[in-house]
Amino acid sequence: MSITQVKSGIGRGFTAAMLLGLSGHLINEVQADTTTKTVTQGDTLLGADLARNIYDLNGAGITVAIISDSFNCLGGAEIGQANGELPATVTVLKEADCQGEKTLDEGRAMLEVIHDLAPGASLLFHAMGDNPADLTQALNWVADHGAQIIVDDAIYFSEPMFQDGPASQTIDRLAAERGIAVFSSAGNAGLNSYQSAFADSGRYPLGEKHGVAHDFNSDPRKTDTCQTITVGADAFTVLSLQWDQPAKSIGGGNGSAIDLDVVIYDDPACKRVSQAWVIGGAIDNLGGDPVEVVGFDNKGNRRRKTVGLSILKVAGPAPGLLKYILSGSSLPSEHPSIDEYRNSAETVTSAFGHANAANVFSVGAIEAGQGKKPPAPSYYSSPGGLPILFDNQGQRLAEPIVRRHVDAVAPTNVNTSFFSKTRPDLEKDGKPNFTGTSAAAPHAAAVAALLLQHAARNGQLLKPIELYEVLRRSALDMGAPDYDYETGYGLLQPAKAINLLSNDR
């Protein structure tokens, strides 16, 4: 057994006060199964087991890097290696700060999924850290250590929605210049996003110096500056509000000419401004980045909490587009909801940040079929379609760029050798399920490893864009014909992809 540690500094897990990153979900309890090797249901659902047998593949010669919360903060990785859940050697370039907030070792769960589908692949791990700068460092570090495929499940609520941030630009560079394929989980926000042009209500609920409120009601005869939302039970929910202005931190220049604030009330009628359990929402955005991040700390409360929300314009012209996204959860009790003035489902977009980079392969989730149930899209899987409005220098584009992300879907609710007792056990087999788009993304990375091994065996050097195209063309359509932003091109099909690759030679 060998876990190789390469020191590159000290990382930290997600902390509520920082409001910058959130990987999947926060979990406090873990259980281990050390009796028999556990295999993800996604192996057979995708037909990866058949593809390995038919084409004699196992991912050998391919290095896959995982960027996630932590690897072995909870302990037990050595047991997993002894039982064959992980390869004999896992190179840990940077572990999380296990003394901070409790981590999930979701990175180890992702590694187990990849090892199930591509057991011959070499595996690297790097902790995601707290913010997009940490992710950018991680991307470069794993690339420098030989990664041919990178997969991450990191979400940072300060990442820009309408402009490519540093992480997105790094992904594009790694793909174009170094031939590294990058797979990212689409996110767990689902339909929990609201967007609109700013509508001036003429009302100042906190006084003029705090700004004029947005009118949520589109009926010109009515005005409503209070929107009702519900945050999850025993959960820390994050809201990221952004608007159509360039970010100072990306392109320099003048930054945002508009300052918006988010106000949260303890009641759904917006009568009592929250003082105790809400963090953030009122920084000065002028000359900075067009983002307000708010945290709702409902941990310890076994009930969901319904609150009121107002958006105030403190300074500058009215934004032509404002949008917020709520962090989601793969547990219904923890998943928040927008209770009124929802956008129509077909227009909602909630995959953002580096999951919307030009050269990323964004992975959504489908529920692993239980019994006779066919696979279906997960309610929390974030749909794509978010427009890019500004170039890297902060100049507004003549036409918005709308990329075809999500690219494809892969299974969630699958087994690993360890996981939290708070997760569902849908098969009643004593193994709680690995949930969220965090579970889907490593399936895609593992399938990619099989394809790269097959290509190398036949003297082919697949560029990332070529690899992505094979995966898209071979996917099993699950939604609207050809493509839709919820399921992309469909469910990954490893055997068909390898066959397609062989025929393209």
Structural class: alpha/beta
Query: Percent of residues in beta strands?
Result: 15-25%
Arithmetic mean of pLDDT: 91
Q: Cα-atom Rg, whole angstroms?
A: 22 Å
List the helices and strands and how they pair.
Elements: E1 2-5, E2 31-32, H1 42-45, H2 48-55, E3 63-68, H3 77-82, E4 89-94, H4 106-117, E5 122-127, H5 132-144, E6 149-152, H6 166-178, E7 181-185, E8 193-196, E9 212-213, E10 227-231, E11 236-243, H7 248-251, E12 259-265, E13 278-280, E14 291-297, E15 305-315, E16 322-326, E17 337-338, E18 360-367, E19 376-377, E20 387-390, E21 396-402, E22 408-412, E23 414-415, E24 418-419, E25 433-434, H8 437-457, H9 464-474, H10 494-503
Parallel strand pairs: 1-4, 3-5, 3-6, 4-5, 6-7, 7-18, 18-22
Antiparallel strand pairs: 2-24, 8-16, 9-15, 10-15, 10-17, 11-14, 11-16, 12-15, 13-14, 18-19, 20-21, 23-25
Overview of the molecule:
This protein has helices at 42-45, 48-55, 77-82, 106-117, 132-144, 166-178, 248-251, 437-457, 464-474, 494-503, and strands at residues 2-5, 31-32, 63-68, 89-94, 122-127, 149-152, 181-185, 193-196, 212-213, 227-231, 236-243, 259-265, 278-280, 291-297, 305-315, 322-326, 337-338, 360-367, 376-377, 387-390, 396-402, 408-412, 414-415, 418-419, 433-434. It has 505 residues and is of the alpha/beta class. Strands 1, 3, 4, 5, 6, 7, 18, 19 and 22 form a nine-stranded mixed β-sheet that branches. A five-stranded antiparallel β-sheet has the order 8-16-11-14-13, with no helix packed on it. Strands 9, 10, 12, 15 and 17 form a five-stranded antiparallel β-sheet that branches. Strand 4, helix 4 and strand 5 form a beta-alpha-beta unit. Helix 2 (48-55) crosses helix 10. Residues 7-34 have low confidence and may be disordered.
